[in-house]
Protein backbone atom coordinates (compact mmCIF):
# COMPACT_ATOMS: atom_id res chain seq x y z
CA UNK A 1 0.00 0.00 0.00
CA UNK A 2 1.49 3.37 -1.02
CA UNK A 3 2.03 6.06 1.59
CA UNK A 4 -0.75 8.32 0.19
CA UNK A 5 -3.12 5.34 0.27
CA UNK A 6 -2.12 4.56 3.86
CA UNK A 7 -2.75 8.19 4.82
CA UNK A 8 -6.21 8.24 3.24
CA UNK A 9 -7.08 4.88 4.81
CA UNK A 10 -6.02 6.13 8.25
CA UNK A 11 -8.03 9.35 7.91
CA UNK A 12 -11.15 7.34 7.07
CA UNK A 13 -10.63 4.62 9.68
CA UNK A 14 -9.96 7.10 12.50
CA UNK A 15 -12.90 9.36 11.66
CA UNK A 16 -10.61 12.35 11.10
CA UNK A 17 -11.87 12.82 7.56
CA UNK A 18 -15.32 13.58 8.94
CA UNK A 19 -14.00 16.10 11.46
CA UNK A 20 -11.85 18.36 9.27
CA UNK A 21 -11.99 19.73 5.74
CA UNK A 22 -8.29 20.41 5.09
CA UNK A 23 -7.28 16.92 3.94
CA UNK A 24 -6.08 17.74 0.43
CA UNK A 25 -3.08 16.99 -1.76
CA UNK A 26 -0.91 19.42 0.20
CA UNK A 27 -1.80 17.61 3.45
CA UNK A 28 -0.90 14.25 1.90
CA UNK A 29 2.43 15.60 0.66
CA UNK A 30 3.29 17.09 4.06
CA UNK A 31 2.33 13.88 5.89
CA UNK A 32 4.39 11.83 3.43
CA UNK A 33 7.42 14.05 4.00
CA UNK A 34 7.07 13.67 7.78
CA UNK A 35 6.64 9.90 7.43
CA UNK A 36 9.77 9.51 5.31
CA UNK A 37 11.85 11.70 7.65
CA UNK A 38 10.57 9.72 10.63
CA UNK A 39 11.54 6.40 9.05
CA UNK A 40 15.11 7.67 8.71
CA UNK A 41 15.07 8.82 12.34
CA UNK A 42 13.80 5.44 13.57
CA UNK A 43 16.50 3.60 11.63
CA UNK A 44 19.12 5.11 13.92
CA UNK A 45 17.68 3.63 17.12
CA UNK A 46 20.70 1.62 18.31
CA UNK A 47 21.84 4.46 20.58
CA UNK A 48 18.39 5.41 21.94
CA UNK A 49 18.18 5.66 25.71
CA UNK A 50 15.39 3.29 26.73
CA UNK A 51 13.33 4.17 29.80
CA UNK A 52 11.96 1.09 31.54
CA UNK A 53 10.81 3.02 34.60
CA UNK A 54 9.19 6.42 34.98
CA UNK A 55 7.53 8.46 37.71
CA UNK A 56 3.74 8.59 37.96
CA UNK A 57 1.30 10.69 40.00
CA UNK A 58 -0.48 9.20 42.97
CA UNK A 59 -4.02 8.19 42.08
CA UNK A 60 -7.04 9.63 43.83
CA UNK A 61 -9.88 7.76 45.48
CA UNK A 62 -10.79 4.68 43.46
CA UNK A 63 -8.00 5.37 41.01
CA UNK A 64 -10.33 7.59 39.01
CA UNK A 65 -8.06 10.60 38.78
CA UNK A 66 -4.48 11.57 39.48
CA UNK A 67 -3.43 13.84 42.33
CA UNK A 68 -1.74 16.55 40.30
CA UNK A 69 1.75 17.41 41.50
CA UNK A 70 1.95 14.50 43.97
CA UNK A 71 4.20 11.71 42.71
CA UNK A 72 3.97 8.10 43.78
CA UNK A 73 6.99 6.94 45.76
CA UNK A 74 7.35 3.92 43.46
CA UNK A 75 8.09 4.47 39.76
CA UNK A 76 6.10 2.50 37.20
CA UNK A 77 8.13 -0.36 35.69
CA UNK A 78 7.32 -1.65 32.19
CA UNK A 79 9.22 -4.91 32.71
CA UNK A 80 6.32 -6.97 34.04
CA UNK A 81 3.59 -5.91 31.61
CA UNK A 82 5.93 -6.41 28.63
CA UNK A 83 7.03 -9.86 29.81
CA UNK A 84 10.61 -9.00 30.72
CA UNK A 85 13.52 -6.86 29.56
CA UNK A 86 14.17 -8.97 26.49
CA UNK A 87 16.26 -7.82 23.54
CA UNK A 88 13.10 -7.66 21.39
CA UNK A 89 11.32 -5.47 23.94
CA UNK A 90 14.40 -3.28 24.29
CA UNK A 91 14.55 -2.79 20.53
CA UNK A 92 10.83 -1.96 20.39
CA UNK A 93 11.15 0.64 23.16
CA UNK A 94 14.24 2.09 21.48
CA UNK A 95 12.30 2.64 18.25
CA UNK A 96 9.38 4.17 20.12
CA UNK A 97 11.84 6.44 21.94
CA UNK A 98 13.12 7.67 18.56
CA UNK A 99 9.56 8.39 17.42
CA UNK A 100 8.88 10.33 20.62
CA UNK A 101 12.13 12.25 20.15
CA UNK A 102 11.21 13.10 16.55
CA UNK A 103 7.76 14.31 17.56
CA UNK A 104 9.17 16.49 20.32
CA UNK A 105 11.66 18.07 17.93
CA UNK A 106 9.11 18.71 15.21
CA UNK A 107 6.05 19.71 17.24
CA UNK A 108 7.37 21.84 20.09
CA UNK A 109 4.35 20.79 22.18
CA UNK A 110 4.35 20.30 25.94
CA UNK A 111 3.41 16.63 26.19
CA UNK A 112 3.20 13.44 24.12
CA UNK A 113 2.71 9.76 24.89
CA UNK A 114 2.53 6.43 23.04
CA UNK A 115 0.21 3.80 24.52
CA UNK A 116 -0.27 0.15 23.64
CA UNK A 117 -3.39 -1.91 24.35
CA UNK A 118 -2.32 -4.86 26.53
CA UNK A 119 -3.54 -7.00 29.41
CA UNK A 120 -2.00 -5.87 32.71
CA UNK A 121 -0.89 -8.12 35.58
CA UNK A 122 -4.52 -8.46 36.72
CA UNK A 123 -5.43 -9.58 33.16
CA UNK A 124 -7.45 -6.41 32.63
CA UNK A 125 -7.15 -4.65 29.27
CA UNK A 126 -5.44 -1.29 29.59
CA UNK A 127 -3.58 1.30 27.56
CA UNK A 128 -0.03 1.27 28.90
CA UNK A 129 2.28 4.22 28.32
CA UNK A 130 5.46 2.98 26.63
CA UNK A 131 7.21 6.23 25.71
CA UNK A 132 6.55 9.91 26.39
CA UNK A 133 7.91 13.36 27.06
CA UNK A 134 6.54 16.02 29.40
CA UNK A 135 5.17 16.02 32.94
CA UNK A 136 4.62 12.82 34.92
CA UNK A 137 1.29 11.18 34.07
CA UNK A 138 -0.73 8.04 34.57
CA UNK A 139 0.86 4.79 33.33
CA UNK A 140 -2.25 2.71 32.60
CA UNK A 141 -5.72 3.70 31.41
CA UNK A 142 -8.42 1.04 31.83
CA UNK A 143 -9.90 -0.04 28.49
CA UNK A 144 -13.54 -0.35 29.51
CA UNK A 145 -16.74 1.57 28.90
CA UNK A 146 -16.99 2.77 32.50
CA UNK A 147 -13.61 4.52 32.47
CA UNK A 148 -14.26 5.80 28.95
CA UNK A 149 -16.99 8.01 30.44
CA UNK A 150 -14.24 10.23 31.91
CA UNK A 151 -11.32 9.51 29.57
CA UNK A 152 -10.65 10.43 25.95
CA UNK A 153 -7.75 7.97 25.93
CA UNK A 154 -9.98 5.05 26.85
CA UNK A 155 -12.74 6.20 24.49
CA UNK A 156 -10.35 6.38 21.53
CA UNK A 157 -8.74 3.08 22.55
CA UNK A 158 -12.15 1.38 22.48
CA UNK A 159 -13.75 3.06 19.46
CA UNK A 160 -10.80 3.85 17.18
CA UNK A 161 -12.29 7.30 16.60
CA UNK A 162 -9.88 10.22 16.99
CA UNK A 163 -10.56 13.09 19.38
CA UNK A 164 -9.01 16.47 18.59
CA UNK A 165 -9.79 19.16 21.17
CA UNK A 166 -8.36 22.59 20.46
CA UNK A 167 -10.08 24.19 23.45
CA UNK A 168 -10.34 21.93 26.52
CA UNK A 169 -12.33 24.47 28.57
CA UNK A 170 -15.01 24.79 25.87
CA UNK A 171 -15.08 21.01 25.45
CA UNK A 172 -15.72 20.53 29.17
CA UNK A 173 -18.45 23.17 29.16
CA UNK A 174 -20.19 21.20 26.41
CA UNK A 175 -20.15 18.11 28.63
CA UNK A 176 -17.27 16.25 27.01
CA UNK A 177 -15.54 13.47 28.96
CA UNK A 178 -12.02 14.37 30.00
CA UNK A 179 -9.42 12.93 32.36
CA UNK A 180 -7.55 15.86 33.90
CA UNK A 181 -3.95 15.07 34.78
CA UNK A 182 -2.53 18.57 34.31
CA UNK A 183 -5.07 21.41 34.72
CA UNK A 184 -2.84 23.71 32.63
CA UNK A 185 -3.51 21.70 29.45
CA UNK A 186 -5.53 23.75 26.94
CA UNK A 187 -5.54 21.45 23.89
CA UNK A 188 -5.34 17.70 23.29
CA UNK A 189 -5.27 15.34 20.32
CA UNK A 190 -5.86 11.67 20.97
CA UNK A 191 -5.51 9.45 17.90
CA UNK A 192 -5.85 5.66 17.48
CA UNK A 193 -3.19 3.24 16.29
CA UNK A 194 -4.22 0.44 13.92
CA UNK A 195 -2.64 -2.84 12.89
CA UNK A 196 -2.75 -3.69 9.18
CA UNK A 197 -5.89 -5.71 9.90
CA UNK A 198 -7.64 -2.59 11.21
CA UNK A 199 -7.53 -3.78 14.83
CA UNK A 200 -6.98 -1.01 17.39
CA UNK A 201 -3.56 -1.65 18.97
CA UNK A 202 -3.11 1.56 20.97
CA UNK A 203 -3.29 5.34 20.87
CA UNK A 204 -1.13 8.42 20.92
CA UNK A 205 -1.92 11.46 23.04
CA UNK A 206 -0.53 14.96 22.44
CA UNK A 207 -1.19 17.95 24.67
CA UNK A 208 -0.23 21.60 24.91
CA UNK A 209 -0.66 24.56 27.22
CA UNK A 210 -2.01 26.71 24.37
CA UNK A 211 -5.32 26.49 22.51
CA UNK A 212 -5.81 25.93 18.77
CA UNK A 213 -2.46 24.19 18.22
CA UNK A 214 -3.78 21.25 16.22
CA UNK A 215 -3.72 22.77 12.76
CA UNK A 216 -3.44 20.94 9.42
CA UNK A 217 0.36 21.01 9.78
CA UNK A 218 0.17 19.58 13.30
CA UNK A 219 -2.18 16.80 12.25
CA UNK A 220 0.04 15.91 9.29
CA UNK A 221 2.83 15.24 11.78
CA UNK A 222 0.54 13.25 14.09
CA UNK A 223 -0.80 11.08 11.26
CA UNK A 224 2.75 10.33 10.11
CA UNK A 225 3.57 9.29 13.67
CA UNK A 226 0.46 7.09 13.91
CA UNK A 227 1.37 5.31 10.67
CA UNK A 228 4.90 4.64 11.96
CA UNK A 229 4.20 3.32 15.44
CA UNK A 230 2.28 0.01 15.04
CA UNK A 231 5.17 -1.97 13.53
CA UNK A 232 7.43 -0.72 16.34
CA UNK A 233 5.22 -1.87 19.23
CA UNK A 234 6.40 -4.74 21.46
CA UNK A 235 4.95 -8.12 20.47
CA UNK A 236 2.11 -9.50 22.55
CA UNK A 237 2.43 -13.19 23.45
Automatic annotation (TrEMBL):
Gene3D superfamilies: 3.30.450.40. InterPro entries: GAF (IPR003018), GAF-like_dom_sf (IPR029016). This is Histidine kinase. Pfam families: GAF (PF01590). One of its GO terms (molecular function) is kinase activity. It comes from Alishewanella maricola. Residues 96-227 form the GAF domain. Keywords: Kinase, Transferase.
Amino acid sequence: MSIPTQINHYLQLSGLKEQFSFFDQAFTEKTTAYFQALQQHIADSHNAKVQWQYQVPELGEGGACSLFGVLDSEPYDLTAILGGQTSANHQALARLTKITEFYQQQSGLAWFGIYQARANLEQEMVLVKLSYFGAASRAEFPLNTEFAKISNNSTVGLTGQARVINDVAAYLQQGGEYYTCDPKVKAEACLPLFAQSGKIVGIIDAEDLKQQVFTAEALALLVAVCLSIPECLPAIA
